[in-house]
Amino acid sequence: MSFTSFAEFLAMGTHGAYVWSSFAISLAVLALNVVLPLLARRRYLQDEARRLRREESQ
Amino acid sequence: MSNLMNWTWFHKLGSPKWFYEISGRWLPWLSAAAALLLAVGLVWSLAFAPPDYQQGNSFRIIYIHVPAAFLAQSVYVMLAVAGVVGLVWKMKLADVAVQQAAPIGAWMTVIALVTGAIWGKPTWGTYWVWDARLTSMLILLFLYFGVIALGQAISNRDSAAKACAVLAIVGVINIPIIKYSVEWWNTLHQPATFSVIEKPAMPLEMWLPLLIMVLGFYCFFGAVLLLRMRLEVLKREARSSWAKAEVKTHVEKSL
C-alpha cells in the first residue's frame, strides 16, 4: 500500500482532482461500452418477440 | 502438417452461424478475464503502485492512458486487416467486424485523449498542445469517425463495406506516424515507456500493474467486440432459420 490513510489516498498528493477525474471518466466510458450493446440486444429481442406474437395471432 | 495447411477454419469463419456459436462460447470467459484483470489492475494501480519520484501521484493516469492509447491503435490496425480480408475474400463477417470495432476504437481514442489532457495539466502546465503525438492521435479519432460515418451513410451494404475497408486501409498510414511521432519531431510527449517485448524502462512494481491493465483492456475489447458482432450477425441473418431459432429461444425465456 503506498498510502498511510484513506484521506491521503483520496488526496493523491496534490493530484487528486486529476487522477480521480481521469479514472472516473474512463470507467464511465468503459461502462457505456458494455451497457449500450446489452440494451440494444435486449431491445432487438423484444422487438422480434412482438413481431413473432403478431405473426402468430394472425 | 496437413493440420497446419488446413484452411477450413478460415472458411468457417466466414459462416455467420459458426461465428455465432463459437463466440457465444468465448464471450463468458473473455468477459470474466476482462472484469478480473481490470479490477485487480485498478486497485493495484491506484493504491499499491509506488508514486513517481518526479510526477508524484498524477503518474497513476498512465494506467488508463497507455492501455487505452495502445488499444486505440491496435483496433485501427485490426480494422485495416479486416478491411483487406473483406475486400480480397469477400467475407461478410469482416465488414461486421469493421463496423462494430470502429466505435470501440473511437471511444478508446477519446479515453487516451481526455486522460492525456488531464495528465498534461499538472505535468506540462497545459491541457493541450498541437504537438505531433497529440495531433496524430486526434487524426486517428477523425479516421474512426470517418469509418463510422461512411458505414452509416451508404445504404447499400456491399458498397458501404468496400468504402469503409478502403478508408481503414488508407488510414493505417497514421499508425506508424503516431508511433514514431515522438522520435521524428521534437515533441512535448515523452517517448514510449511501456513495451511488452522489451525490458521494462520502469521498476517492476510500476510495470506489472500496467501490464495487467493493458491485458484487461484487450480482453475488454474482445468481449465488447463479440457482444456487438453477435447482435449485428443476428440482425443481418434475421431471415435464416438458425437466427430465427436463436431469437425464439430468447423470446421463450423472457415470457
Write the layout of secondary structure elements.
The complex is a heterodimer of chains A (58) and B (255).
Chain A: H1 6-11, H2 16-57
Chain B: H1 2-5, H2 8-13, H3 16-48, H4 62-89, H5 92-124, H6 132-153, H7 157-171, H8 174-184, H9 204-236, H10 241-254
Look at the structure and give the mean pLDDT of chain A: 91
Could you spell the SSE succession of chain A in H and E letters? Answer: HH
Query: Roughly how many Å is the radius of gyration of chain A?
Result: 22 Å
Content of β-strand of chain B = under 5%
Helix content of chain B: over 70%
Number of helices of chain B: 10
Order of helices and strands of chain B: HHHHHHHHHH
Q: Helix count of chain A?
A: 2
Output the structural class of chain A: mainly alpha
| Strand proportion of chain A | under 5%
Structural class of chain B: mainly alpha
Taking the sheet with the most strands of chain A, its summary is: none
Shape of chain A: rod-shaped
Overall number of strands of chain A: 0
Task: Identify low-pLDDT runs of chain A.
Answer: none
- Number of folding domains of chain B? 1
Q: How is the quaternary structure best described?
A: heterodimer
Kindly state the mean pLDDT of chain B as a whole number?
Answer: 91
- The count of DSSP E runs of length 2 or more, i.e. the number of strands of chain B, is 0
Write down the Rg of chain B.
20 Å
